[in-house]
Amino acid sequence: MKNPKAFTALALATGALITGCAHTVPAGIALEKTDSFNHRDDIVVSGAIHTEDGKTAPGNIRVTVDGANFNGNEAQFNGEQSYYKLTADNTSDLHGTTYWVTVQAEDPEAEVSCYIKDTGITEPTHASESEGKGSATCRLDYN
Question: Which of 20, 11, 33, 44 is nearest to 114 (CA)?
């Protein structure tokens, strides 16, 4: 190939296909508001945002699938702990994927909490959480 940029892009794309890094976003994936982690056999994400004086502060929660965005992957909320479950046209398509959740406060000094749980059939089987100032990110490998 005469164009080194085209060759590099082709090599990277081929490498991604060979190593299985090329994932598709499950059809119909969406965030659906729910009331808690007390559901079975779901993936539930949650976030909370508080200022130094303990008041809630607005922000958003965003989910990506293997690093890819999807329509409706972000929700604005008032900072009070909020819960969203992941849905799809076929929920079995949610397996075999890595989910990243980022909670971002409008106030960069606010305390932020991020949670994601595979609620399991009888009890939670996988969970990840993190806290940060201004934002927090957590991840779940859902196999």
Answer: 44
Report how far residue 38's alpha carbon sits from residue 9's, in angstroms, rounded to the nearest whole number. Answer: 45
CA atoms in the 13 A half-sphere facing the CB of 84: 26
Q: Output the CA torsion sign for 47, 67, 93, 73.
A: positive
Between CA 75 and CA 4 the distance in angstroms is 41
Separation CA 112–CA 109 (nearest Å) = 9
42-90 residue pLDDT tens: 899 999 999 999 999 999 999 999 989 999 999 999 999 999 999 999 8
| φ, ψ (nearest 5 deg) of residue 21 | -80, -10
d(CA 136, CA 6): 36
List pLDDT tens digits, range 86-117.
Answer: 999 988 888 888 999 999 999 999 999 999 99
Q: Where are the beta strands (DSSP E) in 35-142?
A: 43-50, 59-65, 74-77, 82-87, 97-105, 111-118, 126-133, 135-142
